Each structure stands twice: as structure tokens, then as C-alpha cells.
């Protein structure tokens, strides 16, 4: 059990690394990067040249000086027009406001010089700032071929929990912040102003031979800006780039968005959003991470119960809030009440939406996921909260 204390936190950070586009900043001032694009993986090179040989590096203009930084919650007319066109293209304010819960399942592939590391992520969102993630990582642990982790935060109770290797531990405020940071039930550009961001138009640019509006987005509390590229014709977001500093110097990163598909609201099929089912992240021109969405469900009827405390014994773990209390509970042999139903074949979150609530519901391709036996990604830089209630900068919107 004590070995587990030193293992859970690194595993959590490792999982966040797999979802690199969503990983929170190591410090409030380091949440952004600037970059030069390389060919995304969903655009194939026809000849035998490598991507590096086939795609010359794009020279980016330097980021704006500090004196050019706009005031929080402000935007010029050009950036407002581009953002409004984007929001309208992907669904519109009214459609996003109608979203009460959301489920998504996606594959994450981490590209390394020695091979690939794969994981499957499932996310559940619900208004009132509730977030849950189930991680299924291609990493051997003991005699198990994969690492299964569940992390959840309930905006109703203000409590967060993690479960791994059968044991449950409460999340402290810092880990809650890492879980909910940059997790939107709707879209970042629906609420950028309310969250304290600022926008600045930087002229036209080009992504894969498409003319784009380029906009710098400045986070609150002085964080470094990120640059967004919106297709001038369709309004869709094609790329984001940012910069961070490392021991080896500045790192330029890009996140490409592609394969937009329509997702219908399950309560009102007339409401439709568009979402990029393919996202590729590059660092200094090298592909490091791919995210492939398999399923997205809007308003499927997710229950508050799946965001509660998971079933399993509590240990005096690394992310706990009160070691003495946790030890006392474990000593007494008290067990946590299960928030989901079990059967011999799988564990299904009770209230996960439409098919998920029924124990013997028929298995079908559009059914809610069957993974809660285990369950981390643009970027507030506000400090972590002092209590496990919804932290400053939490981005699951309640409107």
C-alpha cells in the first residue's frame, strides 16, 4: 500500500502528458507556447520524402511585446468578428447553452522515437462543474497489461476522487485544478470574456494553403498568449500555436484541428455542433501526439451519481486530504457505497446516459461507454484553489 503512495501521483501526471494538448501549465506564467507548423498527420506526403524534408519550417512573427497586451475581457472588432464566425460555424451560442451533459471517447497516441504509447480516454461533463475521466493506458502494471485510472470531481459536493489498482483516494485542491483545468462542456470561445481573457487580431495567416484570421488570446493574470488560426472561408479553427521554455531553450508547439464532424443533440436533433475528430500536436515540427475521437454524445442524460466517490477501500494515499482519517476508515473496514452497478462482464456507470443506466441494456455501437472500473487536452493561469470546491479558472461552464 505504501508503494502506491509514491505511484499514483506520477501516474496521474503521466496520463496528463499523454493528453499533452490539455495538460495544465506547470506554473501560472507558463501556460502557453508559440510555434511553427509542420505537416499534420492527416495530410499525407505523396512521395518518399520525410515530413521534415517535404515541409519547410514556417517562420513565425515574434509574439507581441508586453506593452501591446490588451486589457482583460477586451477584444478589437476584427477578432470579435472572427470568433463570432467560428462560434456560429460550430453550432452557435443557443446550441451550446442547451448542452447539459456531454460524453466523449477518444484515442491518444503518444509518438516517441522508440515507438508509440497508446491510451483510451473517456470524459463525462455535466453542468454544475462536474467532470469525470476514465483512463485506459497501454502501460503494464504488475500482472495487469494496462493501467486503469478513474478521476472525478463533483461540482455538487465539491469533492474530487481518484481510483487506481482498486483503491480510492480523495483529491486535494491542486489535483482537482489539474483535472478540471481547460475542460469545457461547450467551447472555450463561448465564455472567453467571462473567464477574463483578451483577444487581439494579428492579421491574416495561412494553414495548409488556406487563408486564416490570426488572433492572439491572452489569459488572465499575465500568462503568455496563444495564437489561433481561423479559416477565413469556413470560420472553423484550424490551428493553435504557443511557446514554452524548457531546459534546452524555447519550444514551439502547434495543435492542428481537422476532420470536423457533426454531432446531434440527443434531446433535440435539430441542434447540431461541429467538432474536430482529429487533433495532432507538434513540437518544433515533430509530431508528438495524436488524438482521434471515436464518439461524442450530447445530452444523453448523465446522472450526478457517476461524479461521486468511487467504490473501493480508501488508502492513506498520495493525493489524500487527511491521512489520519483515511487510516481510521480503512482500519474499521468501512467501505464506500458504490455509485454504479456491476455485473460479471463489465462495470457500467449508473446514470451514464440513455443505455448506461440499465444493467442488461442491449449492447450497441452508440451505447454509453463501459469503462468506469478505472479512468487525464485553452488555458486559465489563475492559481490553484485553496479548497476542493470549483477552482478559479475551472472551465466547465454553467452559464
- The proportion of residues in beta strands is 25-35%
Mean pLDDT: 75
Q: Gap between N and C termini, in Å?
A: 42 Å
Helix share of residues?
10-25%
User: Quick one: biggest sheet?
Assistant: 13 strands, antiparallel
Give the helix/strand layout.
Elements: H1 2-5, H2 8-18, H3 51-54, H4 77-90, H5 93-97, E1 101-112, E2 115-126, E3 130-137, E4 147-154, E5 159-164, E6 167-170, H6 173-180, E7 198-207, E8 210-218, E9 226-231, E10 237-246, E11 249-264, E12 272-283, E13 286-298, H7 323-332, E14 341-342, E15 347-348
Antiparallel strand pairs: 1-2, 1-13, 2-3, 3-4, 4-5, 5-6, 7-8, 8-9, 9-10, 10-11, 11-12, 12-13, 14-15
Amino acid at each position: 500500500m505504501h508503494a502506491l503512495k509514491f505511484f499514483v501521483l506520477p501516474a496521474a501526471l503521466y496520463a496528463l502528458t499523454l493528453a499533452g494538448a490539455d495538460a495544465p501549465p506547470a506554473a501560472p506564467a507558463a501556460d502557453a507556447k508559440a510555434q511553427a507548423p509542420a505537416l499534420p498527420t492527416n495530410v499525407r506526403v505523396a512521395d518518399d520524402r520525410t515530413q521534415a524534408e517535404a515541409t519547410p519550417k514556417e517562420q513565425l512573427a515574434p509574439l507581441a511585446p508586453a506593452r501591446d497586451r490588451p486589457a482583460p475581457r477586451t477584444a478589437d472588432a476584427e477578432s470579435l468578428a472572427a470568433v463570432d464566425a467560428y462560434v456560429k460555424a460550430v453550432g452557435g451560442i443557443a446550441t451550446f447553452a442547451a448542452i447539459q451533459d456531454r460524453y466523449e471517447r477518444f484515442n491518444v497516441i503518444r509518438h516517441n522515437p522508440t515507438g508509440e504509447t497508446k491510451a483510451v480516454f473517456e470524459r463525462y461533463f455535466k453542468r454544475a462543474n462536474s467532470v469525470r475521466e476514465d483512463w485506459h493506458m497501454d502501460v503494464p502494471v504488475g500482472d495487469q497489461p494496462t493501467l486503469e485510472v478513474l478521476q472525478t470531481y463533483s461540482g455538487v459536493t465539491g469533492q474530487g476522487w481518484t481510483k487506481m489498482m482498486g483503491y480510492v483516494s480523495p483529491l486535494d485542491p491542486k489535483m482537482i485544478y489539474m483535472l478540471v483545468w481547460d475542460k469545457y462542456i461547450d467551447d472555450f470561445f463561448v465564455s472567453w470574456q467571462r473567464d477574463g481573457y483578451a483577444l487581439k487580431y494579428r492579421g491574416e495567416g495561412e494553414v495548409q494553403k488556406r487563408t486564416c484570421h490570426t488572433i492572439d488570446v491572452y489569459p488572465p493574470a499575465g500568462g503568455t498568449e496563444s495564437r489561433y488560426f481561423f479559416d477565413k472561408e469556413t470560420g472553423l479553427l484550424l490551428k493553435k500555436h504557443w511557446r514554452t521554455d524548457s531546459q534546452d531553450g524555447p519550444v514551439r508547439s502547434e495543435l492542428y484541428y481537422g476532420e470536423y464532424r457533426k454531432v446531434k443533440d440527443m434531446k433535440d436533433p435539430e441542434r447540431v455542433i461541429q467538432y474536430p475528430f482529429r487533433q495532432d500536436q507538434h513540437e518544433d515540427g515533430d509530431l508528438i501526439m495524436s488524438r482521434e475521437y471515436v464518439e461524442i454524445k450530447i445530452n444523453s442524460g448523465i446522472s450526478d451519481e457517476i461524479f461521486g466517490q468511487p467504490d473501493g477501500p480508501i488508502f492513506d494515499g498520495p493525493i489524500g486530504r487527511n491521512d489520519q482519517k483515511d487510516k481510521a476508515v480503512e482500519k474499521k473496514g468501512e467501505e464506500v457505497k458504490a455509485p454504479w452497478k456491476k455485473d460479471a462482464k463489465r462495470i457500467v456507470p449508473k446514470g451514464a446516459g440513455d443505455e448506461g443506466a440499465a444493467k442488461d441494456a442491449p449492447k450497441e455501437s452508440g451505447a454509453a461507454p463501459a469503462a468506469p472500473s478505472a479512468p487525464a487536452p485553452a488555458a486559465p493561469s489563475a492559481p490553484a484553489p485553496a479548497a476542493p470546491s470549483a477552482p478559479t479558472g475551472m472551465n466547465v461552464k454553467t452559464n
